[in-house]
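Thread: quick sanity check before group meeting

JM: Hey all, I'm pulling together slides for Thursday and realized we never actually wrote out the predicted structure for the chain we discussed last week. Dropping the sequence here so it's in one place. If anyone has concerns about the input, flag it before I start.
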Amino acid sequence: MNLEKQVTRMKIALDVDGVLADVIVSWLNYSNSVRPKITKHQITTWEFWKEFKIDPFDFYAELSSCWKNWMSIPKTEAKLSSITKSLSELGKVDIVTARERSTDYFVKSWLYHHNIFYDDYVSVIDGPMKADLDYDVFIDDSPLNAEKFLKNNKKIILYSQPWNQHIHENKIQRISNLFEAIEKIKQI
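JM (edit): ok, ran it. Output follows.
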């Protein structure tokens, strides 16, 4: 009997907001037209709206609204298409995002427009719920998600953003650009 060894591909969960799409820039453009000016580097915590006295429901509604104008949302970096293609050569890459379902169409349109390589699109209601999913490694920017990934013994590659600079856990691998994730994943 000839038994073939089954090779399992690495499963990579790739976040959208803050990792691929710089949606906070779009939100800031809106917010700065109706509130006192905030810069991206002033957003040093995940729940920054508390510091700036912004109602969290307003913030999330405005962020979702930014996705309706998805063509105006910039990429976090220039070569995302080629980088996500390289990631897909290392394993199965799924977009794993936390958002209102009403924005899924806009996000998928943005991903298609920017030629982002991925296998499946997985949307959860709340970011920390991602840690309950079966992936070998998560590429994310949320400090809350990072804490939950660690608690669930998941591997996390943290995409550096101003709101996650306070995270200094040794088990977290930090990257300043997505290309760096390729080498880190090869070492896993």
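AS: nice. The longest strand covers residues 91-98. The chain has six helices and six strands.
JM: adding both to the slides.
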